[in-house]
Design brief:
This protein is mainly β. The chain is about 10% helix and about 40% strand. Strands 11, 12, 13, 15, 18, 23 and 24 form a seven-stranded mixed β-sheet that branches. The longest helix is centred in the N-terminal third of the chain and has 21 residues, at about 1-20.
Length: about 300
Amino acid sequence: MFAVRMRAGYVAAGVRMVLFGLMACGGGVQGRVVDGMTHQPVPGPYRLTAKATGEGVAMGCQILTTDVGPDGAFTLSGTCSGTGYALSTDRDDLWLADATVPDGGFDGPRDIEAWHAPKAAGLYVMSESGELTALKTAADLKSDRILGSEERIRYPWEMASGNVAVIEGGQHLVLVGKSTVDEMTVTPVLQSMPRWFGRGMKPPPAGKNLDETGWLLAEKEKYRMGPWWYLGTTFTDNIHFERVAATPDASKVVEKSGETRAVKYLAADALPKGRYAFMKEGDRRMYLVDFGGPAPELPADPEPPIPVQ
């Protein structure tokens, strides 16, 4: 009985060896790597890697590599029957999404879409040529109470022009990472002339002339801001305001998601020309981005009004 079991084991091992030997490894595929947005070739040189997705694949069939040429073209040799292949490149900024080679290869040369999407989540400016520049948050988020209201006004604490990104012409703002794509909000950042804000208010005495707010404030309770930028709010005067939202034009937005990354591209005209804040709920800092060209400078601060006594 013992000898029989041993013989059966040898036979099973021999069967496995025959199966691997029958896996043909002389196939190949040809194609081009093209930009997923422009469908233009993404020129090399860089490496294209194909990893087998099937089970029980022979060692020589598991990982194949080739070089991508200056015209984006490639030839991948040595593919094996019995398995498909997942494609990737050695460029961190170039993502092939879920590009695969099916078992048996392509019917003919095939274009493989590549997306300019770094591994690191965040916001990027993408040039017309596909070069990416990472953005840093530009300002702290502050808030104060609007006079005559329990509502608050939000605004950037500082505004250095060098920290404000500009998206114009053929450029795109690129959001990378699932939480960035899903949770990042966009809010218009709007200019206003000097405004008074404060924590407390009291009605004027009978017969007293009113200031422009219609209320008198104790000196310690009011706070004057010169010309400044405010998030999603326009003012008629110190107490009359309107909230303003921003919704990107869906026809100017491209999204792509897969198992490993998610990315969203906003064209320079995806939003009306102006300045916008990008942040997630609960963030204490914001990205500042000018769409359609640099936003105008703030007007000069006029002489402060004489406080009402």
